[in-house]
Amino acid sequence: MKSDEFAEGASEWPDELSRREFLRLAGASLALAGVGACTKQPIEKIVPYVKQPEGMVPGKPLHFATATTCNGYAQGIIVTSREGRPVKIEGNPDHPASLGATTIWAQADLLGLYDPDRAQEVMRGENISTWNDFLQDVDVALAAQQSNAGAGIHILTDTIRSPTLIAQLQAVLKRFPNAKWHRWNPIGPDSINGEVVVYDFTKAKVIVALDSDFLFMHPAALRYARDFALARRVADPTSARMSRLYVAEPTPTLTGANADHRIAIAARNIRALAKELAVRISASPRSAPLPDELVTFEPWIQTAANDLVANRGASIVITGNGQPIEVHDLIAKINDQLGSVGSTIARNSAVAGSGDAGPPITDRGYNQTESLGQLVSDMKTGDVELLIILGGNPVYDSPVDFDFASALTKVKVSVHHALHANETSRLCHWLIPAAHFLESWSDAVAFDGSISIVQPLIDPLYANISSDEMIGALIERPVRSAYEIVRETWRSTNPTPHFENDWRRALSDGVFRNIDFQSVRPAELHSAEVKTAEKISAERTGRNPMFLELLFRVRGRSRN
After folding, report:
1. Is 0.70 topped by the overall pTM?
2. Exposed e or buried b per residue across 187-219, where buried means at least 16 C-beta atoms within 10 angstroms of its C-beta
3. pLDDT tens readout for residues 405-464
4. Beta carbons of 222 and 75 less than 8 angstroms apart
5. What is the assigned CATH class of domain 123-190+353-435+459-481?
6. Segments making up each domain of the chain, as ranges
7. Domain 197-347 classified CATH 3.50.50.60?
8. If you placed Cys at 460, which of 125, 416, 438, 464 could pair as Cys (CB 3.0 to 4.6 Å)?
């Protein structure tokens, strides 16, 4: 039997509520709704500009050239500011490392400036303190280190390529010769212990990428993506030819999506693949059969090798930061055999090292894991009396068997300079809030050697301290401002009568100086080194089809 959806009488107006009564109640509700907003506001005074800022037109945005960093390398950006507040980040078309483009991380950096979770106060344990109190504590610790030349002073930094900051760290090591500077970046480019190599994809006709997402995850991805697109653009089909891209990778990437020939291969088998390419390119007699894990990819290997040989001097073979040093050795050997060095490949000497003191920036002799392990060992034995941690979060991302957290509790004075309070900050005696790059002065070097001055657009929103001021606390009193420190660096390296003009031009254009890197041949690999690399490659190559592989792509620094 068909019945009504609603109960009987549900659509009828209730007798006890007349239309007049409903309107009376509704009117009273609306009248009371605004009572909560009728509180008296406190008296606040506004102060007009005594002198109109240069270039300021109310309602119109201003644009400033500065730079952000990706894995320590500079990327030129243009920041839009309205009424003194940065509101938008775009690429700087005049900067050779960005050419007007930005990464997703650069876009998100603006949100970090206004992040309410930022470290806002100098903290001593769980109590709010001041910068002056911190300096007094550091002075006591430094005075105790004078007798042993700073043997108890250790500095742990993230990836650093700021010329000014490197010069300051060297000054610390000069004042305290027995102090130690450690560097830790678990997944950054320093992990490969390799050379800083710059590729010119506009000249490459054949590109082979072995576990390398150079179009997205590489520090020079903005420039490489633009150059790669230019090489693929065909204006005249009758006279031009697109470059060809061969990709072998363990996970889908943006580079793999643009490949002409792509294979999915385990990351542990990239070593064997690189070795096989080297053998076929050199036409050396084969001493062993093709490994079982490469049999399926034999057509791809042969096609790529033939194409590389047919385009000597116009090819690029590149691998990613996730591969070990022996793979990078083999790739360097392949590129050298193909005659690519000096044509499509160059080494950037401008960012190749950090000088005489401290760990080198990318020198092959420096092993970050061993250095961090030595630091942990010294902490556990009580040999570290003053530890300065500049950025990073080693408690979170250091190897678990190091037990960094337990060792940190045995340091007499530990200091963490960070943008956010994290696992490391909570175990340190001091937390010094780091200044955002949009509110502090600094400098940075791009992947191609171009140098930018990082200029602030706003005063620090909180009690933030820049990295230069933080390290300056170890070498000078009073501590100069970051502006004075950065200017002094470039005034001393550019002692000309035109320095002021050069400085203003650098701030306007976003590039202080273009350093032309020299195309030099990489160090020849000794036969013993190649043999060792091949031996390690054979030993580490997995042959078990059930072998599980764990890959790390990013380290979680931006997980907030």
Report:
1. yes
2. bbbbbbbbbbbbbbbebbbbbbbbbbbbbebbb
3. 999 999 999 999 999 999 999 999 999 999 999 999 999 999 888 899 999 999 999 999
4. yes
5. alpha beta
6. 123-190+353-435+459-481, 197-347
7. no
8. 464
